[in-house]
Records
---
Amino acid sequence: MGAKPTTLLSLEDIDECCELTYFSRRDIIRLFDRFYRINPNAVKANPFGVRLPAADIFASIEELKCNPFRQRLAFVFSSKQDDCFSFDDFVDLASAFCEKAPASVRASFAFRIYDFDNDGLLTASDLGRLIDFLTCASENSPKLLERDEVVGYILEEAGVEGNRSINEAEFQLVVKKLPDFATSFKLIM
Ligand SMILES: [Ca+2]
């Protein structure tokens, strides 16, 4: 039957992942097992080099299966921007939205996800697309962030009018005023 997934990881590998994320050794082992199950043969052949299609990864994660932000997540977290994730990319995604990640880290990734045209600014156009994403999502699909009020707040607090745009520092300030942000913008994997 071949090796168990955990034997593919050395303690050094695990500790390196721990250092770069908010996870414990046990978390890393659990995530690796999850990654392995998506395509055991490919992962076994090249545990850290293999890049699995983001679509396969999302399909295996209940919380992401129907998430309207799948494409944005694939873009932001695929280190080679090839719509595929290495194990490191997968861990980065899980770490960014885990419970231990500080609100500022989650906000930083939220900013990149909402910046649909990747120009480093949230413009009215980005926020408009964000509202579309949130309102077009199926009623009963799980969403990474189900926050119509957040969108309203962002517009109001940042005073977006005309061509006004929000940079990441301003976005962080807006998010600080949202007590629910840290709890709503999370993903348990
Ligand atoms: Ca933008």
---
Amino acid sequence: MSVSTRIALVTGANKGIGLEIARQLAQAGVFVIVGARDPGRADEALKSLLSQGLAAQSVLLDLNNSSGILAAAETIRAEHGRLDILVNNAGIVDAKDGPPTSSSPDAVRRILDTNFVGTLAVTQAMLPLLRQSAAARIVNLSSSLGSLTLNGDPASPYYAARLIGYNASKAALNMLTVQLAEELKETAIVVNSVSPGYVKTDLTGHNGFMTAEEGAKLPVKYALLGDDAVSGKFVEPNGETPW
Ligand SMILES: NC(=O)c1ccc[n+]([C@@H]2O[C@H](COP(=O)([O-])OP(=O)(O)OC[C@H]3O[C@@H](n4cnc5c(N)ncnc54)[C@H](OP(=O)(O)O)[C@@H]3O)[C@@H](O)[C@H]2O)c1
């Protein structure tokens, strides 16, 4: 691998939008590290990339396993010494989530623990490696459902989707984007929240308007932002999203 080859970690890259992000980054010449929590699923995803002649490896990464996250960061440090792109893609929904009057608090806790706390833990663990990059990019896979403004706007198509756990987890993730972008503004690390659109994956029960391939396009664009990169933004395929 050339020293100028960018190195990316994509969490939850064994399927859905994450696998497509991994594929498209690799097709753009990036060396991709497929993060996945299950060894078999990690292997299968890696094989599918390698069989297409793409440059990739996999690392075990479970957002709910703190020591495993640190071990993954250590593996990447030992093998590459830096990270240029972190795509925080892994995320969950829960069938027991719902409106605030009836959602299961345990389900809400699980969702927040994975989508927000787990993502925060991965980001913290990878930051020393991202600081070694000349121009690092962090992409947080958010959702328009995480927009406080749209949740309170009866004219918004997202208004009726009352999932207190999922929506709050993405609002919290957006807070991570805002605060981290501010904290890192004097560094070469750029952080953005990207909503991929409504994408047909396991997470949506294969409902949606876009394929995973289409849904990966905007996250990939933000992972590959050049020297004029913006930081601390919240975007969706139609443009900027209100927080
Ligand atoms: N699909 C949409 O319309 C849509 C819209 C807006 C935002 N998003 C966001 O986009 C991201 C990807 O979603 P998707 O639609 O591609 O969903 P998906 O097909 O269900 O894929 C989710 C990925 O996250 C992984 N994951 C879940 N919990 C994990 C954990 N604790 N540790 C590590 N990996 C974990 C899954 O691994 P396993 O296979 O092991 O479960 C899987 O690889 C999510 O953050 C989602 O919230 C999706």
